[in-house]
Amino acid sequence: MPIKIPQSLPAAEILENENIFIMDEQRAVTQDIRPLKIGILNLMPTKEVTETQLLRLLSNTPLQIDVQLLTTATYQSKHTDAHHLSSFYKTFDEVKNKKFDGLIITGAPVERLEFDDIHYWEELCGIMDWANQNVFSTLYVCWGAFAGLYYNCNIKKRPLEKKISGIFRHRTLIPSDPLLRGFDEVFTAPHSRYSYVAREDIEKNEKLKLLAVSDEAGVYLAASKNFRQVYVTGHPEYDAETLKLEYERDINKGLNPDKPVNYFPGDDETGAPVNTWRSHAHLLYSNWLNYYVYQITPYDIEEIGK
Questions:
Q1: What is the pLDDT of residues 26-57, one digit of tens each?
Q2: What SS3 class is residue 244?
Q3: Which of 13, 144, 145, 184 has the most CB atoms around it within 10 Å of its CB?
């Protein structure tokens, strides 16, 4: 949240130059507050697990959040109870006439398919087009980031010879960006994917800024310069044991997966993994909610897109 200080205080100029968000007394007195309306388009097969992970991160701010869970109409989840979906989720058709302050589009286990071969690709394109007009800021996660970068920026995902799975070190590239406020210069985050986007494709796009990278895992965090789209190629929302469960699932499928790197204590898969990325995950989501959404979204939500 912003700090409220007199605009004439000498520290104000220093803090503003450091890109620290401050609010003068006049703005504080006149500021209106309302709940943020956030949608979650949950494309993961284990929807209840994913929604819990994301809601945990969204709840760690003083802001009041009004969450709407969303699912596709053109593809019915095979791993989520139908009653759960009908009770808590809506389809795009049910919300397309509404505005949202923020939208999260999750990953999906379809990375090795071409976009046009995915059952719900046409519907997802319609959702992303709608979001660009009716959502103030959209957060794309993992495969969702590849889909968003392709649809919004014509940046293609590239296949990997082997799945990237594990916990990787990342470097911040623009520490002054509000999305990275409070980040350590080096931080860890999970990755679990079969694709990547090239760093040079991000850097040569005039609409984007590259915010964090990994020497091993490549591009991690990028955003549009107008704050409206954020792309995260990893899974900061993952719990400590999520990669372990995915690893065991792939073994049971006969995929002969590599062991997640930098993950099991002493590289011993019988050990309990330790969560070393939780603080970064909470900070990323709270920064997105605060600086990319709350501080600049219109108070009258109907003004979004006008």
A1: 665 555 667 899 999 999 988 888 988 998 89
A2: helix
A3: 145
157-204: per-residue pLDDT in tens? 999 999 999 999 999 999 999 999 999 999 999 999 999 999 999 999
Residue 268 makes CB contacts below 8 A (sequence gap 6+) with none
Which among 86, 42, 35 is positioned nearest to 65, based on CA atoms?
35
Residue type, 38: I
- Of 51, 111, 237, 246, catalytic: 237
235 in active site: yes
Rounded to an integer, what is the distance from CA 237 to the centroid of its chain? 9
pTM of the entire structure?
Answer: 0.90
Query: Which segments of the chain does DSSP mark as H helices, in order?
Result: 10-17, 25-30, 47-58, 82-88, 92-95, 121-134, 143-153, 199-203, 242-252, 278-287
Check: CB of residue 37 under 8 Å from CB of residue 9: no
CB-CB neighbours of 304 under 10 Å: 17
Please compute Rg for the chain using Cα positions. Answer: 20
Structure tokens at 187: 């931080």
Is residue 125 part of the annotated active site? The answer reads no
Catalytic residue among 142, 191, 280, 282: 142
The SS3 assignment for 156 reads coil
Within 13 Å of residue 118, how many CA atoms lie on the same side as its CB?
Answer: 19
Q: For 150-168, write each residue's pLDDT tens digit.
A: 999 999 999 999 999 999 9
DSSP string covering 268-300: -TTSPP---SHHHHHHHHHHIIIIIIITTS-SS
